[in-house]
């Protein structure tokens, strides 16, 4: 399957793609409604049950490792150097001081990235690209635009697979792709040049396939797959609507703030700890491959 979709038998997979699109929009709106890091953290924790229900915990954790780099950078750099900071919270080596206001800003941005990233991962990994295209057409989206979404989800794994093939082929020709960073930069041309050529060839082939199947012909389009809004979707949408109304009330009417200095410091140390575990895991894997080789 040439997509990021992972087949599972779960409640999240059974939801209609339109429901999951509304879910992503709901998460994006919710993440921008709150300027309180504690509320952002509650929203993030509240999404973990959906990851469990989708039965994609391992894939989710692997996908979020990349975002942790941005989160660590944002929390650390903004926490120290953001000019809005005035109230010192704690000091680390070298006299670098984390300030309360800076940590609040950094925490909101970091949790927002994790929240939206979690929603995106759930959506992409539980939604079949063909189902997404069909759902968009039921919303009266033009067939060509729906196909653009479909091909976008499918082209990323194809390019990743071709890049791996090119790298292995170049290694077989004695190209050292595991050298130091400067040598790797020099080796980008023999890696990317064939990859670009392969990509253009595949796009050219795709255009022929589309013409052979009368893609540009007017009329009703049919599909082997079918999507339908079920009672589960209505329950899910109703729950999102109730939560959104509650969030609007809390955001505009109550103006509550649950953030404390201890929460900010704990969040910072938790982010550092998770990132440290990711780095140790990465180094251990590389060392194991080197020793085993």
Q: How are the SSEs ordered, and which strands pair?
A:
Layout: H1 11-14, H2 17-33, H3 37-54, H4 57-81, E1 88-91, E2 97-99, H5 100-126, H6 129-138, H7 143-172, H8 181-186, H9 188-212, H10 231-254, H11 261-292
Antiparallel strand pairs: 1-2
Protein name: Energy-coupling factor transporter transmembrane protein EcfT
Transmembrane segments: 21-48, 60-81, 102-125, 145-163, 234-252, 264-284
Keywords: Cell membrane, Membrane, Transmembrane, Transmembrane helix
Walkthrough of the structure:
By secondary structure, this protein is mostly helical. It has one domain (11-292). Helices cover 74% and strands 2% of the residues. It contains eleven helices and two strands, in the order H-H-H-H-E-E-H-H-H-H-H-H-H. It has helices at residues 11-14, 17-33, 37-54, 57-81, 100-126, 129-138, 143-172, 181-186, 188-212, 231-254, 261-292, and strands spanning 88-91, 97-99. A two-stranded antiparallel ribbon has the order 1-2. A hairpin with a 5-residue loop joins strand 1 (88-91) and strand 2. Helix 4 (57-81) runs antiparallel to helix 5 and helix 4 crosses helix 11 (261-292). The longest helix is centred in the C-terminal third of the chain and has 32 residues, at 261-292. The protein starts with 10 loop residues before the first helix and ends with a helix.
